[in-house]
Amino acid sequence: MNARLIYNPAAGARTTRDQVARAAEEFRARGWNVAISETAHSGDGFRIARQAIVDQLDALIAVGGDGTLNETANALVDSQTALGVLPRGTGNVWAREMGMPLDDLAAGARLIADAEIKTIDVGEVRGTNFSPRIFVLWCGIGFDAAVTRDIETNREMKRRLGPLSFIISGMRLAWQYRGKRVRIFADQFKIRRRVILALAMNVQLYGAFFRLAPNARAQDEKLDLLLFKGAGLGETIWHAGRVFLGSHLRDPQVEMHSIATLNIPTEKLPVQVDGEPIGFTPIEIRVRPRALRVLVPRTANMDLFSENL
Description:
The protein is of the alpha+beta class. The protein has nine helices and 17 strands. It has two domains: 2-114, 3-Layer(aba) Sandwich (Rossmann fold), CATH 3.40.50; 123-289, Sandwich (Tumour Suppressor Smad4), CATH 2.60.200.40.
């Protein structure tokens, strides 16, 4: 396999040149031809990934979190270059779905070197105030997108506290955020609901801990749409408790639909993809079937790749 490994040396002490070099050696020991590139500026990951396509590389290995996953996936979509991720982020949702070790790049490299290439669906979101974006994990509209926007203004808290920063920010915003009456057009149906949060999910995990969409599959040409209904603090706390207990899908205040397209014309709701804020509604979402090649280790949640429920 011919591959390029990319990482940001300024991301913190957890990702040192020595750690990345050891990971690269694990690939080479297994017959891979691996070069290393450093990112320094916003957009470098995208540009390096696009160059990997031009160079006809078999794989791009990105060291980072779900934001890095999103950036490189947007570059590699509809190409023959497969994407692998060595986790060094905050939530590391994709890495958790893949059963990857979160604190050992060399061990992760050994798993990726022995991985199988699978082609998965992705979501695509378009809006009037941002460029089209691919998402691998999910697109959130409403409360969680407000939380991600809040965290982006306090990146030091995110760096120090990791996933806990989302909980702290969420607790603070829960006092302020109010559900909005939202018009939703999905496939052949339309609904109007007062919604605190809408999630279009391509994977099962949400955040670092919660299996929010256990029926989601990454190869079924569908997204799982979850609607958390309500207006204020009481409903937000109720939903949070049910999610913590894993009983949210039995709650009549939560709707779940399997969809291929979604249109939300309601304006000024915050939007995030894969944990990164991107803008505001109105938006359109669609599935792009089998659009991204990914490296899936044997440790992965293979239920995610089962087409039959």
